[in-house]
Amino acid sequence: MKNSLYVYQNGELKRKDNTLQFCTVDGEKRDIPVNMVSEIYLFGEVSINSKLIDFLSHNDIIVHFFNYYDFYSASLMPKKSKVSGKVTVKQAQFYLDDEKRLQLAMKFVEGAGKNIYRNLRYYNSRGKDLEEYMNEINYHLKNLDKARDVPELMGMEGNIHKTYYKSWSTIINQEIDFEKRVKRPPDNILNTLISYLNSLVYTTVLGEIYKTQLDPTISFLHEPGDRRYSLSLDIAEIFKPLIADRLIFSLLNKNQIQDKHFSQELNYLYMKESGSKVILQEYNKTLQRTIKHKDLSRNVSYRYLIRLECYKLVKHFIGEKEYEPFIIWW
Fold first, then answer.
1. Number of other CB atoms surrounding residue 299 within 10 Å
2. Facing residues of 39 across strands?
3. Cis ω on the peptide bond leading into residue 185 (within 30° of 0)?
4. What does the pLDDT read at residue 179?
């Protein structure tokens, strides 16, 4: 099974014969079998060259770059091996048709909202009093079809998340002050965790899109723009409640992540390497977790659920089957 490679140390990542080698600044060398790597995450100051880039491209390996504060910076994408002019044209046509775009964007918000609701239902059944928040989110979901355009729909999505985040102080056992979502820069433990894990989900989704005929730059809920793969943002909305949010709740309620894993600098909080390593270990476990698929009648991993979502979108664009978002069924 291929796994993600996480590099924290400073040094050089290079091709050695037909495999990978990482050399630290102290001269330590580590050989890494390329056939065991699905994608690479670089958190340290790592040098790479065109020889390595060409090698990674031939092996369909994406490289994700993170800065000193573990904020996502960029991704180095190989040339897509799965391309379809037909799918790209159809995908663009759905974006250009205001009604079709709105209906598809509505599906993304519906999927995200219903998965948020299921998170609340899960914890409500385990002794957390979340009925008020569940009712409020249900109200917002029932009114999604009243949105006249995508900006209005995004406002409704914002109301769902606003209600959702209010419930977190009830779900989480640790004493953490969390009044609102602050992104740039994150100002407390929860905002830092949300930003970090959301970026991981984004890169995971991007990797799964790459394995299909979808164009990652043509999106429907989020406005397409320069320098970002906005379709990843659309699809990530559906999976963040399952993958990112549930992991945050688990990490904090099991005290795997605490104040000691963070450092305050000026007006923002950033994660130490020790905290990042804990999260990445648990994040990988989450992606590898399997569930019996209700339609396929076989076990699939959480990561593969994302791929299946991409396939569903392809079928939607070519008119084979209308898209319905992934909803947690267990």
1. 11
2. 4, 62
3. yes
4. 59
State percent of the chain over pLDDT 70: 97
| Cα–Cα distance list, 65 to 40, 74, 83, 179, 310 (Å) | 9, 5, 25, 30, 24
Kindly state the percentage of the chain with pLDDT values over 90. Answer: 83
Whether residue 213 contacts residue 82, with contact meaning beta carbons closer than 8 Å, is answered with yes
With b meaning 16 or more CB within 10 Å and e meaning fewer, what string describes 170-186? ebbeeeeebeeebeebb
| Res 186: pLDDT | 73
Task: Give the pLDDT confidence score for residue 28 in this predicted structure.
Answer: 94
Q: How far is CA 306 from CA 78, 122, 135, 329, in A?
A: 20, 21, 28, 15
Model-level pTM?
0.93
Q: How far apart are alpha carbons 258 and 235 in whole angstroms?
A: 30
End-to-end CA, the chain: 26
Q: Is 110 annotated as a binding residue?
A: no
Mean pLDDT over 30-35 rounds to 95
CA distance linking residue 90 with residue 98, whole number of Å: 14
Identify the pLDDT of residue 269. Answer: 81
How far apart, in Å, are the Cα atoms of 238 and each of 12, 38, 186, 244?
Answer: 36, 23, 22, 11
Alpha helices in 59-149 (DSSP H): 85-96, 98-124, 131-142
Cβ-in-10-Å burial (0-12, 13-18, 19+) of 266 comes to: exposed
What domains are there in the chain, each with its CATH number? 3-76 (3.100.10.20), 85-317 (1.20.120.920)
Q: Which of 60-64, 108-112, 135-139, 261-265 has the lowest mean pLDDT?
A: 261-265
Lookup: tokens for 78 = 């190989």
pLDDT level of residue 89 (50, 70, 90 thresholds):
very high
**237 labelled ligand-binding:** yes
Q: Is 320 annotated as a binding residue?
A: no
